[in-house]
Amino acid sequence: MYLVESKGGAIVCMLLSLLFLGTWPAVMTLLERRGRLPQHTYLDYSITNLLAAVIIAFTFGQIGHSSHEKPNFLDQLTQDNWPSVLFAMAGGIVLSIGNLSTQYAWAFVGLSVVEVITSSITVVIGTTLNYFLDDKINKAEILFPGVACFLIAVCLGSAVHSSNTADNKAKLNTLPTDQKDGVMNSSSTLVVATGVRENDIERVNGSANKAKAGTAVFLIELEKRRSIKVLGKSMMVGLGITFFAGVCFSLFSPAFNLATNDQWHTLKKGVSHLSVYTAFFYFSASCFVIAIILNITFLYFPVLNLPKSSLKAYLGDWNGRGWAFLAGLLCGFGNGLQFMGGQAAGYAAADAVQALPLVSTFWGVVLFGEYRKSSRRTYILLVSMLFMFVAAVAVLMASSGHRK
After folding, report:
1. pTM of the full structure
2. From 54, 57, 137, 329, which residue has the greatest number of CB atoms within 10 Å?
3. How far lies 174's CA from each of 180, 191, 375, in Å?
4. What is the domain partition of the chain in residue ranges?
5. Residue in 263, 274, 262, 268 with CA at minimum distance from that of residue 69
6. Which stretches of the chain score pLDDT less than 50?
């Protein structure tokens, strides 16, 4: 099998992982804003997410000759390594629950803030656990100031959301009540007033005859089209889901670390440690199973007042299916690259890929018009949050060690 062994190779893996993991949430958010049920989207995503792990296992995991110290993927499937397999599967379970939670949190809180808060919680808890599990191969005097920066980013992320919510309420209050009701109840009203057709709402480039991103009319029309209705809902619902997802995310990397390095000595003597690729296969398989069970349940017993669906309706829903498949591949390869880099340079340093909100915020602003026409206070908080995030990532990267 192929192993990343140099610090430079590990950093390349982390940077690619950062790009992939920061992009797939934007694709999922795009589909929700266009009205596709999150249950349908997540079922599609789960299929290609598992496919990515299978591709990685049968390529990187099978390259070269197999040995007792470095067994290939297929050889490890028959070994008595179930304690490590269970750790890998536990990591997949918490990741699947966290990813499912963020699908609903994105609608309430927005792509940018959700990614900042969940990633920051992941670093604060997960990186600390990984530091001790990795036998302190990362430089503590550099690592933990970076963790502190992430913690500050959590507080700033919450402040950004609160300020942006107040801005949106102020925008909506500028519309007369009868105009608000008319827009909410009739798409033809908006078409006549702005020239925006139902499928054009994401493609707002500032034309005079279209509803501009950040305006009250844009917010109301978006509410009509999206699958999860959020106007008038308490922001505490979204933040509660977001913090729950962050706790789930903080546990999957330490569990994977235990699966590949067996720090608790659960394997029998003479049994080789799980390779990254074998662990990632089991990790993704459990992630897939949990996702299928929960989302099929949500088809028939939906949450947050979503409409009921069925397996037949899901199988016939091809609107946006290709984008959902792409999201699964991006997330799958992103997670795989993160683990490949973490095995070489330490999983605590690999948590630098939690800089993914930098990518997600870019997509949130470019694709969805987040923070358009917001107040000066919101912009100051947003810039402060991103600055703290960049500083945290730089410090975390600098703490990279080298696993013996």
Report:
1. 0.81
2. 57
3. 10, 20, 15
4. 7-65+80-398
5. 274
6. 182-209
